[in-house]
Amino acid sequence: MKKLTPKEEEILSLFWEKGPMFVKELKELYSDQKLHYNTLSTMVRAMEEKGFIAHEKFGNTYRYFAAVSKEDYSKQSLGNVVKKYFNNSYKSVVSALVEEENLSVEDLRKLISEIENSKNE
Length: 121
Known about the structure:
There is one protein chain. The protein is mainly alpha-helical. The chain contains 6 helices and 2 strands. The chain has 2 domains: about 5-65, Orthogonal Bundle (Arc Repressor Mutant, subunit A); about 70-120. The chain is elongated and about 55 Å long.
């Protein structure tokens, strides 16, 4: 899966939040009001080419919608971070979180317990 720019991620999150929209509706919601309609439309079409957005035709215009779920995108993004920065090791990620005190030992114990319980079910 190709990567999105931060602006494209912001656009995709609007589709997740609001559902299918025409570019005109998206422009009203988008935080960068200085962005021209045609520029926003070009960005949406580029995201469609990357496979993140799809469309349905209404007369002579298109209504766009997210083609990938937030959950799937999150998993893919996390996988890319782990691969790029942690040598594809989730153990290294957890280690880094514990070392930086972002994950306490108690949280780690709870996580291990949840994993063990899910395997037993």
